[in-house]
Design a protein that fits this description.
single chain; 270 residues; alpha/beta; seven-stranded mixed sheet
Amino acid sequence: MAEEVSLGEVQETLLIPLYGRARDARSSHSILRDDMAVQLVKDIDYDFTKFTGPSLGGAVLRASIIDGYIRDFLRQHPDGTVVDLGCGLSTRFDRLDNGRLRWFDLDVDDTMALRGRFFEDTNRYTMIADSVFSSTWHDRVRERSGPVFLVSEAVLLYFPEAQVHGALSELAQAFPSTPIAFDTGGALMMNSQDRNPVFRQVPARMQWICDDPAELEQLGLEFLDSRTFATPQPAVARTWPRRHRYGMRALRWFPPVRTYKLNLFRTVAA
């Protein structure tokens, strides 16, 4: 029997990238090969077919770029810890597990209640029901010494600037000298949300506008790298079908492509 969904407005948006990854897995030139996403879509009682448009493929490209950042970290720190803040129904742990890392998936109560129907904790994988804007989970992650990588994908965008800046400042203080990856959207992209087919199907809207990620250094972050769908890491680009590699490059000046960025920072606050 399929699992029913009861999620808040922002939380419901997690179903968009899930469906995007499932569609990618069924394609002949899959980027992520996320067969688990296919099974999750089958097992959840929800009309995923209402989601259409380029955001589905974009969710796959976004995930692959962020995967690239984490893979680089794990090559240097194979025993490191990764914390996915606002994980939704991500299957990133299964994609990137090297048999040695420690992984925490964190999201709010209703999301983790749904996630708990399909995933289980292990000795190296832990689910935490909490918010990226809370500090109560920090000590649980810091109990294990060693390098940490923080990642937040398609989460911070849905909240006001002041709240996002506060959370980033707090993370910089709590986890010094720690890499953190997250996405940002410029005004041109944010102002076109109502023209995006997937957003016609959900009530939530993104709020945080960030045209220049480098300006976030004032929050205790060191700006290391930024990618768009037109400029993925070379190793990541090689995993994309030709239509994505060259198609995104041709669209590099298109506002949603040019102003949506996947960024890597390192916290610097003591």
